[in-house]
Recover the amino acids of this structure.
């Protein structure tokens, strides 16, 4: 079968000038400074389309306020995704899972914040605490925004499967994918602030992922139900996953 | 997008009717209703994450543009399926019927032809989808990244919807029904995993 080499006809309602390289450029002009970010909507849009705007100028005012807005997005977004997580078991999990996802997202960032500052400083970074807070808040916000994008898919699977292990694996896959993009944002932001990314930052990223994974065990159960709100038995996450896959009941109650 | 949706619904309904007709007329009607649902629900269910993935992976297009691109590619799939419907119907009419002792072989043949038709439509639709993304981005590597991400998400959710909304052909040994009684008690990937375990144990 021959498939034509040339591009397809333009989509209805889609402008073909979306690509800047194809747009006519009659007169070279000086680039306009980006508009300041105002409101949650613009902040989310900037996180997805132009993360450098979120990190912005270190000397600019209102960075702490922006960091707080990002933390609010992260907490609210994680709680909304938590409702989808809780819909697998229903009942008390409708409130327990959102509380845990919101708490887990903020705690992971909070626990890792000091080490990022120290690792950065050891690598020669001039970033201040509020810059680091902005980066971590942006990371958490981007992760939750992406989780919200995955939410419809997660909900479909939640309603149509009974396996706790399968649902847990799917949520984990979504979280890891979202975290990958979040860490990419953080890496770019760090480069923007200090002009380089060092080994310390890479080590910190690994630490962040491990802390996030351990949070899934420390605050369990997210998927399925438990006798208590928080677990009585302490476990490492690998051990918990192994238990979930082997022997322990893995069917939705 | 409205035109794409209309083409998806009409094209897959025609194909679904031909596909289910072998088992019974009722199955034909059910499949004509369900097959459009698989495609539209997949496109809509993934629209948020697909719209977010495009700018993150380097193609700066809007949610509307990403949804329009995916619906257009699904419309191409639906058009191809509709064009294959007469051939499928001919196969259905000329195959051993449900009353025949050879109904198992006929069911298997229709399944194989269905897989081939869906594969053909899927490949062409995705090639056109890639060309659309490329024309919007102008740069091959980000276009390839976005296409791969969209393909992965569409396969993930599309597989699950096709599992939930089964049967489309209708097994000779099972009753004709809109949804299986255990439709919401498992997922596509668990079923594949169990089948593999059975195969190697």
């Amino acid at each position: 079968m021959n498939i034509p080499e040339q591009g397809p006809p333009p989509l209805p309602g889609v402008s073909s000038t979306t690509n800047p390289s194809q747009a006519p450029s009659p007169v070279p002009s000086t680039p306009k400074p980006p508009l300041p970010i105002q409101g949650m909507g613009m902040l989310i849009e900037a996180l997805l389309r132009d993360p450098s705007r979120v990190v912005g100028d270190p000397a600019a005012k209102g960075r702490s306020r922006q960091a707080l807005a990002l933390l609010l997005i992260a907490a609210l977004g994680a709680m909304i995704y938590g409702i989808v997580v809780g819909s697998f078991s229903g009942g008390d999990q409708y409130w327990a899972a959102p509380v845990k996802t919101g708490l887990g997202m903020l705690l992971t960032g909070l626990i890792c914040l000091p080490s990022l500052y120290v690792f950065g400083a050891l690598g020669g970074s001039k970033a201040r605490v509020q810059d680091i807070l902005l980066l971590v808040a942006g990371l958490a916000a981007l992760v939750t925004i992406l989780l919200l994008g995955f939410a419809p898919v997660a909900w479909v699977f939640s309603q149509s499967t009974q396996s706790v292990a399968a649902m847990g694996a799917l949520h984990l896959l979504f979280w890891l994918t979202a975290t990958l993009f979040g860490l990419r944002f953080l890496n770019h932001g760090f480069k923007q602030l200090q002009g380089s990314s060092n080994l310390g930052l890479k080590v910190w990223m690994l630490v962040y992922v491990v802390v996030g994974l351990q949070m899934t065990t420390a605050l369990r159960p997210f998927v399925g139900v438990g006798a208590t709100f928080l677990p009585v038995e302490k476990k490492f996450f690998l051990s918990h996953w192994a238990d979930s896959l082997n022997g322990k009941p893995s069917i939705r109650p | 997008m409205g035109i794409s949706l209309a083409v998806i619904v009409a094209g897959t309904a025609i194909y679904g009717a031909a596909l289910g007709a072998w088992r019974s007329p009722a199955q034909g009607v059910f499949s004509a209703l369900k097959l459009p649902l698989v495609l539209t629900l997949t496109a809509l269910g993934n629209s948020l994450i697909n719209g977010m993935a495009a700018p993150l992976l380097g193609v700066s297009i809007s949610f509307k543009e990403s949804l329009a691109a995916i619906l257009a590619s699904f419309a191409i799939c639906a058009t191809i399926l509709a064009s294959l419907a007469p051939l499928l119907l001919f196969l259905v009419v000329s195959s051993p019927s449900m009353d025949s002792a050879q109904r198992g072989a006929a069911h298997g043949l229709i399944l194989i032809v269905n897989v081939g038709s869906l594969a053909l439509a899927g490949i062409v639709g995705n090639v056109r989808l890639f060309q659309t993304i490329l024309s919007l981005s102008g740069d091959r590597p980000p276009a390839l990244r976005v296409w791969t991400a969209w393909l992965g998400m569409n396969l993930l959710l599309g597989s699950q919807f096709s599992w939930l909304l089964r049967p489309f052909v209708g097994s000779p040994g099972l009753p004709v029904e809109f949804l299986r009684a255990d439709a919401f008690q498992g997922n596509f990937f668990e079923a594949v995993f169990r089948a593999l375990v059975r195969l190697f144990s």
About this structure: Residues 1-5, 15-27 of chain A have pLDDT under 50 and may be disordered. The radius of gyration of chain A is 21 Å. Residues 62-245 of chain A form one domain.
